[in-house]
Structure formats: C-alpha cells, structure tokens
Amino acid sequence: MPRLRLAVPDDAEQLRNLIRLSTQTLLARMLSAQQVAESHRFMTLDTQLIEDRTYFVAAIGDRLAGCGGWSRRATDYGGDTADRRDPRLLDPASEPARVRAMYTHPDLTRLGIGRMILESSEAAARSEGFSQVLLFATVGGEPLYRACGYRELSRELDGSVPIVRMIKDIA
Questions:
Q1: Fewest beta carbons within 10 Å, which of 43, 48, 82, 110?
Q2: 3-state SS class at 115
C-alpha cells in the first residue's frame, strides 16, 4: 500500500512529470487528441497547494503513485500558469473547500490510491471547519467522485475539455 505524505517543494519536478503522464495517458482513453493537448494548458501543478501544506503525495518506495489535495483558497482548478487563480481564503462557515489536482500514475489505477488521497483531503478540510468540498472533475475522475458520494452540480467546458462540477457534504 502506498505511503501518504504532504508534498514538499523538492517534489515539484516529479509531480509535474506525474501530472503530465497521467493526463496524457488516462484522458486519451476518453478525449480526443486535441482535447488532451488542450487540457495541458490548465492541468498543471499549483505550487500554492504545496506552500499551503494541503497537497498529498502517495508514494511506493521512491516512486510517486499519485497526488492530490485540497485548498482553503478560492481557486477552483488549474496550475501556476492558469489565469483563473484566486488566492482569496475561503470562509469555512459559508463556502466549500476545494478538492484539487488529483492524479494517479497510469500503471497504478484502480488500487485505491485516488480514494486514499481524496479521503485524506476531505478529513483535512473537515478538521479546518469546512462542511462541504467542491471539485471540478475530468470525465476520467468522475466515476471515483460519484462512488465517494459527490453529486453533480453542472457540466462545463474549459475550451473543448469537459469538466464536471461536483460537491459533497463532509460535516
């Protein structure tokens, strides 16, 4: 079973590689080549999550098996280069925390890694007073989130890439 820990700045390059490999490989099963290429515009590492100590790494030995986390900030999704970043701190009494940037190594899917990261993220958000979590899922991640109790709020497009906005009560 993978060991879960908080990501540190020294993980950044490995995380970027994992995110790109996961996106390139797993989304290619569901999206066109153009959509996968377009997804790389916003499916990148958000180092603010590492700085905030809200981003997890699942490791098997020295190998990264998966990553993901949560945020107390208003950014919905997107990495350091995304134009939609919003560093405003959320109000736990009236706003949902964000589940962010969940990726699994393509060779290690369906082993519970994503669920482990998701449950740890929800527990951390709950411990800071949040009663709901909001996420923006890819079509690849949507089945996991549904199985974990998330409900769909809307379906959107980021360019041509389909995104599913989902929410869950965690109180």
A1: 110
A2: helix
